[in-house]
Structure formats: structure tokens, C-alpha cells
From TrEMBL:
Stored Pfam families: Terpene_synth, Terpene_synth_C
GO molecular function list: magnesium ion binding; terpene synthase activity
Keywords: Lyase, Magnesium, Metal-binding
Residue ranges of domain Terpene synthase metal-binding in the record: 194-281
Name of the protein in its database record: Terpene synthase N-terminal domain-containing protein
PANTHER family: OS04G0344100 PROTEIN-RELATED, S-(+)-LINALOOL SYNTHASE, CHLOROPLASTIC
Cofactor(s), by name: Mg(2+)
Domain Terpene synthase N-terminal: residue ranges: 7-127
Listed SUPFAM superfamilies: Terpenoid cyclases/Protein prenyltransferases (SSF48239), Terpenoid synthases (SSF48576)
GO biological process assignments: terpene biosynthetic process; terpenoid biosynthetic process
Length: 291
């Protein structure tokens, strides 16, 4: 991408949304660090005057751990702290402003106003734009990138208008095809991580009970009562396990589905026990250690 800042920002956004950014962490860190240093040392900052570019750069830098002040958006507000209504004509800018607002912290009034303003504009515009843009806007409002699991949302990326002007996407599509073919082992490892997060961080007791029962019955229809992130996790688990079993059966004439299901059942039953054990302050859980 050379020194084309905006194209580099697009590329980083793309690989993150495709959930392949872990292959390029050094390059991403180096580029964003240069952007942050430039913005800190050049008078007036280095963010330009385009709301789309500023919001995208702001989000990527904050995600990477570089604290960019909310005042970079001050140039778009009036004395009362309200955003210029004309900005609402820039749909991409509103999408990125909404995404940027998700990284605000308590007391950042400009970002709070940015979220309210951009969110309201997008809700009003969603029925007035073409279908491709509307789909992306709806997904952004329902599942902002910062609060989503990219491994579950990556499949939507190539259909989004957000990246349609990037000429390198056709080549990237071919890379992703190979990643999807060769990545089963990695997906299993990452599925374990997300299962652990669901049980340790996100799920309520009632939700975890339903989730575990669905796994034990291996019934995909049993997840309708669960929140979207749990549904997505179960579908990945369900589809991946069935796909692996099918491939093993086709190649070796033996179906490992029962063994795989028993492993998932044991793991899901062990996670709640682990949580209770650690909560009691008794150290490592023997049930999970032996699972």
C-alpha cells in the first residue's frame, strides 16, 4: 500500500473483519504506531478533514491500544457540542463514526454524542439506501465490530459495500478460500477459547444450562432462546463437528461423530463445575483437568 494512508486503513479494517489479522500483527502495529506518532508530533494532528477517514483511523488506533483524544471530532461539532447535520449525507462516514463511538469511555461527551447522532442518522437512512448498503448498516447497528466476534461475522464481509472499492479484494478472496479449507484445526482451538469465554464471562446460568442441553442433545433447534452470540457459537460448533466427521467418514470409512460429541458434552458439563470451583477459592479444578 506504500504511503497511501487511507488504503492502508482500509486494508487493516478488512483483514480484521475477515478475522485473519493475527497473521499481520507486526505490520499492523508498525503502521498504526507511525500514524499515532505523526498525529502526536505534527501541529494540528494527522487525521485530515474527512469524517470517514478520521473515524476509521480513530477506531483502529484505539483498538490497537493507542489513546486518541475524542477532540479529533471536535471540528465537526458546534458550540453546543452537536454534530453538523450535513455529515449525515455521508453514509460511510456515519458508519465509521458509529463504530468509533463504541470505543468511548465514561465522561467522553463528544463520543457519546457521536454515537447518538450517527446511530439516529443510520436508522433514518436505512430504508432510503440501496439494499447492499442497507444490509451493512443494519448489521453495524445490531452488531458493532468492537462488540462482535469477527470469526462469526467474517462471512458477511465480501457482501458489504464497505470494501467494494478495494481492487485487492479479489486476491484476498482466494486467500480466504484456502484459509477456510485449511483452518479446521485452528478453528477447533479457537472454538475452545470462545466456549471458555461464554462460560466464564458472558453467559448467565440459565443461558449456559440451555446451551449445555443443546450440545448434549445435539439439537440446533434448541438454541432459539439463546442470545445471538451463543447461537453463532453453537452453529460453528455444530457445522464444524459434522463437517469433520463427514470428511473422516469419506476418507477412512469410520464416522467419529459419537466420539466428538462425547468430548464436547464432557467439556460443556465441566465448564460450569470449573467456574464454581474457582469461585470457591480452591484452585485448579480436577474435573476440567481430567476432561
Amino acid at each position: 500500500m506504500g504511503e497511501n494512508t487511507l488504503r492502508c486503513l482500509y486494508m487493516i479494517d478488512a483483514v480484521q473483519r475477515l478475522n485473519i489479522d493475527y497473521h499481520f500483527q507486526e505490520e499492523i502495529e508498525a503502521f498504526l504506531r507511525r500514524q499515532y506518532v505523526n498525529s502526536s508530533t505534527i501541529p494540528g494532528g494527522y487525521y485530515g478533514n474527512d469524517i470517514h477517514e478520521i473515524a476509521l483511523c480513530f477506531r483502529l488506533l484505539r483498538q490497537q491500544g493507542f489513546f486518541v483524544p475524542e477532540e479529533v471530532f471536535g471540528k465537526f461539532t458546534n458550540k453546543e457540542g452537536k454534530f453538523n447535520q450535513k455529515l449525515g449525507e455521508n453514509i460511510k462516514g456515519m458508519v465509521d463514526l458509529y463504530e468509533a463511538s463504541q470505543l468511548g469511555i465514561i465522561g467522553e461527551d463528544i463520543l457519546a454524542e457521536a454515537g447518538e447522532f450517527s446511530g439516529q442518522v443510520l436508522k433514518e437512512k436505512v430504508d432510503c439506501i440501496d439494499n447492499l448498503e442497507a444490509m451493512f448498516v443494519k448489521r453495524t447497528l445490531e452488531h458493532p465490530f468492537h462488540k462482535s466476534f469477527p470469526m462469526f461475522t467474517a462471512r458477511n464481509f465480501f457482501g458489504d459495500f464497505h470494501g467494494t472499492n478495494n481492487t485487492w479484494l479479489d486476491s484476498l478472496k482466494e486467500v480466504v478460500k484456502w484459509i477456510s479449507i485449511c483452518g479446521n484445526a485452528c478453528t477447533i482451538e479457537r472454538s475452545l477459547k470462545f466456549l471458555n469465554d461464554i462460560f466464564d464471562v458472558y453467559g448467565t446460568l440459565d443461558e449456559l444450562t440451555i446451551f449445555t442441553e443443546a450440545v448434549c442433545r445435539w439439537d440446533i433447534t434448541a438454541i432459539e432462546q439463546l442470545p445471538d452470540y451463543m447461537k453463532a457459537c453453537f452453529r460453528v460448533l455444530y457445522n464444524l463437528t459434522n463437517e469433520i466427521s463427514s470428511k473422516v467418514y469419506q476418507k477412512h470409512g469410520w464416522n467419529p461423530i459419537d466420539s466428538l460429541l462425547n468430548a464436547w458434552k464432557s467439556l460443556c458439563k465441566a465448564f460450569p463445575v470449573e467456574a464454581k470451583w474457582f469461585a470457591s477459592g480452591r484452585g485448579a479444578c480436577p474435573v476440567l483437568r481430567n476432561t
